[in-house]
Amino acid sequence: MTSLNAIAEDQGFKVQFIHQPWEGIFDTLDRDERAIVAAGVTATEERHQKYALSNGYYFSPDLAVYTDSKLDLKTFADLKDLKVATQIKTSRITDLQKLKGGNDKIIATDTLYLALKEVVGGKADAVVGDEAVLKYYMQGEPSVAFKSFEYAPNATVPEIVFVLKKGNTELQSKINTGLANIKANGVYAKINQKWFGSASTKPMAASQ
Questions:
Q1: Alpha-carbon gap, residue 76 to 152, rounded angstroms
Q2: What is the pLDDT of residue 60?
Q3: Phi and psi of 182, rounded to 5°?
Q4: Which fold has domain 3-59+158-196?
Q5: This prediction's pTM
Q6: Where does the Solute-binding protein family 3/N-terminal domain start and stop, copy by copy (predicted)?
Q7: 131 vs 54: CA distance, rounded Å
């Protein structure tokens, strides 16, 4: 069970999960093809302006992952001159562009899984992305000796939220109420323990 399943059960509605490429995922809301985007979306000011966002349901710092033992990477700034992979059209692309002063040595892939594969295959020096997602994919590469570090390029770790079409206040209210209820009754903590190995979702202290 996911947090959204538990919220839906608490509030008496049903959800069907449909896999969707990240590129164009928000357009499905605009076209009324989907009601909710639940894909590890961070709450940004731009998204607040364009969409209806739920309350935060998780804090997940960004993670940088690499395999070259000769590299001793500790901060996001250490990636400046390296070839780095990440998922297309995400906030990490923007962070890398600011760090590098453009798109030089940035590899944009359709999924974070493919970005990690760029590192495993030796085509990229590092991959950056959502910590929880990357750690899950790293488990599928048991023969690879990964090295990693958490970072917060904007000084704080943003909340992960559910995204809805602007004006869908009824569903937004149900999600927020259901989220509060499963946090109060312990269901939320059990879900996080199962998937992430910890019941806590407190944000980490900024590393930079």
A1: 8
A2: 72
A3: -75, -25
A4: D-Maltodextrin-Binding Protein; domain 2 (3.40.190)
A5: 0.69
A6: 1-199
A7: 21
